[in-house]
Structure prediction request, 182 residues.
Amino acid sequence: MAPQKRHSSQSSRGSSSSSIEWSTPPPSPTKERLPDRFTRPDGTTAHRVPTPSHPHHRTIPFYDNGYPGVSVKDIMNGGCVQDIPEPDFKAGRIKIFLQWPGYDSSDILHAGHSTVNPNTTQELAVVLCNALYKFYLCASRIPPSVESPWALFSRVHLGDIMLTSIHLDAGVWIPEFYVLRK
Prediction:
């Protein structure tokens, strides 16, 4: 179930596998950090996965039909194309570090580190979702250090996770995830 690449020139109209139909117009794209919790037009509530807060020098947001966040499941199934132009997106090797509450053993932390060289925001979204999938598989073999509402498998499934943005902090890119709850 590895993510599939799509070219950023492919339109998301009609090709997105997102099952959510928005009844209100999407908000204007912004690079500001989203609130800790927000309600989506379909009634689900998105909760930010807590991670240590650091100042961000650069942010790249991800959108689905103009709304903040992309479904990890949709990206992994080849849907949800990122076609919002990112004029200052530059290709280059970037280091990614995934963080998830309760998973801090050295075995899983290694799975959350990778270095990639994406050329488009779509490729970056695919790489991030692939890294999360690898992290998620490692988490299946390691119990969380603390049982919490963020425990992978028992409380949070891959299909419940949204990627909203990635932030540059001290030369390392840290993705920001939200979990959808009804």
Observations:
- The longest strand covers residues 172-181.
- Residues 1-30 have pLDDT under 50 and may be disordered.
- The radius of gyration is 15 Å.
